[in-house]
Specification:
heterodimer, A: about 110 residues, mainly beta, 6-stranded mixed sheet, 5-stranded antiparallel sheet, B: about 120 residues, about 55% strand
Chain lengths: ~110, ~120
């Protein structure tokens, strides 16, 4: 069984500030972890993924996430927010050979000028 | 570009009507999925298919059916639509790299916004 909890359904930051979106997972087997982003009126697209290689994963648009097994976390960060980062972000967990993912409820990021 | 397309993009229908949502992909992926998105509930899996002859129920399959007509096509049907099926529906695909090498990264279509009155 696997599950994902995203802490905070809404996060608001000022332009240029640090972005931190939190994700905790539960999995009975070693997980694969993903962050997806959804811009208004669009489908989801992959930001980054952890697949048991390096624990610090770099993605597109300056985002990165660190896999911490002891904390069962995979938080998403970006040093400096940009207005274009405003979107909804989803964390997802998958088990090898499972063929499917479980998604969190999503976090809406607002960036204030 | 290889892509995942969904038709229609928007649909308004009435309670009791039969509705079909279609998904096509040119990525050559074996696996296809149908999700619904509701505000605050994230994405919930309705059905998934690992190949043409392998179709599985997801967590919320009641009231829905699917057909995998070909590797590239996966349709979702609402036999008798009801208002609480009003939602944004997404099709997704993933590649089966083989056994433990599979990481389940998914590629999404643009979504179909369905309103049931």
């Amino acid at each position: 069984a696997q599950s994902v909890t995203q802490l905070g359904s809404h996060v608001s930051v000022s332009e240029g500030a640090l972005v931190l979106l939190r994700c905790n997972y539960s999995s009975s087997v070693p997980p694969y972890l993903f962050w997806y982003v959804q811009y208004p009126n669009q489908g989801l697209q992959l930001l980054l993924k952890y697949t048991s290689a390096a624990t610090l994963v770099k993605g597109i648009n300056g985002f990165e996430a660190e896999f911490k097994k002891s904390e069962t976390s995979f938080h998403l960060t970006k040093p400096s927010a940009h207005m274009s980062d405003a979107a909804e972000y989803f964390c997802a967990v998958s088990a090898a050979t499972a063929g499917k993912s479980t998604f969190g409820d999503g976090t809406t990021l607002t960036v204030k000028p | 570009d290889a892509d995942v397309t969904q038709t229609p993009r928007n649909r308004i229908t009435k309670t009791g009507k039969r509705i079909m949502l279609e998904c096509s992909q040119t990525k050559g992926h074996d696996r296809m999925y149908w999700y619904r998105q509701d505000p605050g509930l994230g994405l919930r899996l309705i059905y998934y298919s690992f190949d043409v002859k392998d179709i599985n129920k997801g967590e919320i399959s009641d009231g829905y059916s699917v057909s995998r007509q070909a590797q590239a096509k996966f349709s979702l049907s609402l036999e008798s639509a009801i208002p609480n099926q009003t939602a944004l529906y997404f099709c997704a695909t993933s590649a089966r790299k083989g056994g433990l090498a599979d990481n389940n990264e998914q590629f999404f279509g643009p979504g179909t916004r369905l309103t049931v009155l």
